[in-house]
Structures are given as C-alpha cells and as structure tokens.
Amino acid sequence: MDKYHSPQVDVAVRLNTNESPLPVPPEWITDVRNAVDEVAWNRYPDRSALALRQAIANRHGVSADNVFVANGSNEVLQTLLLTYAGAGRTVATFEPTYQMHAHLARISGATVVSGQRDSDFELQESEIRRVLDTAQPEVVFLCSPNNPTGRLEPRRNIELVVANAPGLVVIDEAYAEFSDWSALELVTEHSNVVVTRTFSKTWSLAALRLGYAIAPTRMVEELNTVVMPYHLDALKQIAGERALRYVEQMQSRVAGIVQERGRIAGRLGELGIDTWPSGANFILFRPTSAASSGSESVWQKLLNTGILVRDCSTWAGLDGCLRVTVGTPAENDLFLKALSWAVGKGE
User: Fold this and answer.
1) What pairs with residue 274 in β-bridges?
2) DSSP secondary structure code for residue 145 in this structure
C-alpha cells in the first residue's frame, strides 16, 4: 500500500491542508496554561473523558453516552472500521472523496467497493442503489461537505443511504460548520448512523489532534471496547473542553471564512476557471487547458511565488484539479494575484 501523505513545503502562504488560517483565541491559551497546574501527571487520565464528552454533548444537544472521542477524526474512523469492518467485510465509498476512508478500510482488512460521482461530482440515486444492492456493505462512508470537491451532500442522498444500507452509515462532517445542513439529526438510538467531527478546522486546533463521533449509545459502547485504554491524554481532554467555551468566537471566524470563500469563488469565475459549489473551507478548481500549458503547471507557478495549494490532478476523476484552502484575506489576495498571473490574466 502507498502511505497517505500531503506534501509539506516551507512557503510563505500554505493553503493546501484545509487548516484554519487563524490562531486560537488568546483566552483559550491562558485557560489551558492554567489548567496544566491541575493535571495529576503521575496518574492516568480519565479513561472515559467524561468532562470533554459532556461538553461536546451539550454543544449538540445529545447525551454524553452518544459521544466517542479520539485522537483526531482519523482515529475515530479507524476505530469504527476496526469495530465494524475487517477481513471478509465490505466498505463502500463514493469517489472522489476523502482518501483516508478507503485507506483505513484496507488497513482493517476490509474489501473496498467504490461508487462513482458524475462529471460534476454529484452523486446520483441510481449509483447509490447500485452500490448498496450489489456490494451489501457493512460500512458506507459519505463525506459531507465532501473532500476534495467541497460539495454538500443533499439530504435526499444521505436519507436514501440510511434507509437502504444494510450496515453502518458514517457521515464524515469535518467541515460541517462551514455549511448549511448537518446529518446529526439522523442519529437516533435506533439508527445505524454515525456522524464524525474534528477540532482541526473550525476550532483552529489542527495541532491538538482531537476528533469525535456522535452515535447511538450501543455503538459508542462497542467503540470503547475496541479502542486502546487511556488513549486520550489528560491535557488534550482539558484543551478540548476549554475550546468549547469559545463558541461565539468560533462562529465569527467561520462566518469570515465563508465570506472569503465567496470572494475567492467569484474571482475564479471572473478568471474563467472552473469551480464547484463548496460548503467547506476550501474550493476545488480546474484551470483551463490553455492556462495549464507551458513548461510549468499552474501548481508549480503558484509554488514559485511562495503559495502552496493541493494538487489533486492525479486523483481519480480530478484531472487538472487543484484545491485551495481559504486563508486570511491577505493570504487570499496573494493567492488570487499569483493565480491571475499563472493563468495569463495578470494585470
């Protein structure tokens, strides 16, 4: 297997990994710094992470028994697959989508079956039914908003999957705070639905590596059986719980990023560059063939100016596509200016 990787280059403007461009509130840093004095470093952390789980539960209007926490949403996804997938079982994805879903499924020993989105990266009902009917997967992944396309999955598609999937349905909502709809309301005690979230994007805490799932109680109990004991350290639990005290600041930052996303999309349209509707903190775009001609690619031309975006052109179905994370207004200005020159429309 090839390892999952995202190239890191030392550049002035890094817009390739969908991180928040803004630092955490200084008040949060003070809170965490003070909390260090409260940690009993010679003792194991709270194995149940109850205070953190309760804070997350309060945020979403569920019980703490419906919350599973782990080291980033990737560990949440890995634990789900170790619990419900594995050798002799099938996991379904709909490509193009987040590559870690299939990667982690294969690591668990499962067989991966992939449905395909259409040329506009939308998922058709007929393809959903085909995959579910033929593969009968134990686990189905939907990423909404979808990474790397940015599209928010229509409610009708998610409800169709939930109604017809024979096993677990995982809705990866790493970017949900940037969109208008969440599948959280579909999680009930009698459902087969799990929604996963992360602190990396909207909470400006990519360095913390903290994620969680909202799921029926019975599923959370199974995940806690599979996950390593004491897997979430004491400082991480405190830092995550303290972050949830700054909801208003987070929402303000999200609103600013959404506004900038619209500005970038508008400018890309003026440049004649193909884009797709995004409900996330990034935009997928495809420079025209004329703009991509010459000895250097648009990606390389941007890099030469100190701007790093994600090259998605080698991924299935994404020929010629690049993905840019929404940065600060100043970073976005630099990106748009460099892109204008890269496609031959600089002023």
Assistant:
1) 286
2) S
pLDDT tens-digit map of 53-101 = 999 999 999 999 999 999 999 999 999 999 999 999 999 999 999 999 9
Phi, psi for residue 196 in degrees, rounded to 5: -110, 145
* Location of each CATH 3.40.640.10 domain in the chain: 26-245
pLDDT in tens, 203-254: 999 999 999 999 999 999 999 999 999 999 999 999 999 999 999 999 999 9
Closest by CA position to 187, among listed 202, 210, 168: 168
Query: Is residue 112 helix, strand or coil?
Result: strand
Beta sheet of 211-214, edge-to-edge order: 67-70, 211-214, 193-198, 168-172, 139-143, 90-95, 111-116
Fold of 26-245: Aspartate Aminotransferase; domain 2 (3.40.640)
In this structure, the chain runs to a length of 347
Nearest Cα to Cα of residue 35 among 235, 240, 243: 235
For residues 272 and 295, what is the distance between their CA atoms, to the nearest angstrom? 21
Amino acid letter, residue 8: Q
Burial of 247 (0-12, 13-18, 19+ CB in 10 A): exposed
- Class of residue 111 by CB neighbours under 10 A (exposed 0-12, middle 13-18, buried 19+): middle
Q: How far is CA 129 from the centre of its chain?
A: 25
List, in order, residues 6 or more apart from 1 with CB less than 8 Å away. 103, 106, 107
CATH 3.90.1150.10 residue ranges of the chain are 13-22+248-342
Q: How many C-beta neighbours within 10 Å does residue 345 have?
A: 13
Give 255's DSSP letter.
H
The architecture CATH gives domain 13-22+248-342: Alpha-Beta Complex (3.90)
Strands (E), 39-189: 67-70, 90-95, 111-116, 139-143, 168-172
